[in-house]
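Workshop exercise sheet. Pairs work together: one partner reads the sequence aloud, the other fills in the structure field after running the prediction. Swap roles for the next sheet.
Pair: D.N. / O.F.
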Amino acid sequence: MSEQDKLAGNVVDHMMSHDRFSQWLGIQLLEIQEGYSKIKMTIREEMVNGFGIAHGGVAFSLADSALAFACNNRNNLSVALDVTITFTKAVNVGDILTAEAKEIHNGKSTGVYLISVHNQKNEQVALFKGTCFRTAKKLIG
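Structure field:
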């Protein structure tokens, strides 16, 4: 494991230990590398909307957490600047969603990430694009 990937893992572990919302969602870290994250969660009954399917905000929140873990893991505090999401398939109770964030651009003050969200059948349920703004603050150390 490279020193950059080791730092990335330490930063994300620190973030996750303080991220009450991601903890409430039940997010599990699967893979962290510099500029990359892969996470998953299971859809619970209290996440369903009035149509009997998962509220879109749940898939959005999973993708947003993947963005946060990918864009912050170089240990530069970064915040979302602009995001968009396209929902491609309904999500149901019991579905296991995986979000994979890939870095498209790593600039000094901004980063761009593409996050794919898939269910347990490997069907894409959402596509999320996020741009982050990088501050000069460190998250750890």
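Discussion prompt: The first strand starts at residue 28 and ends at 33. What would you look at next?
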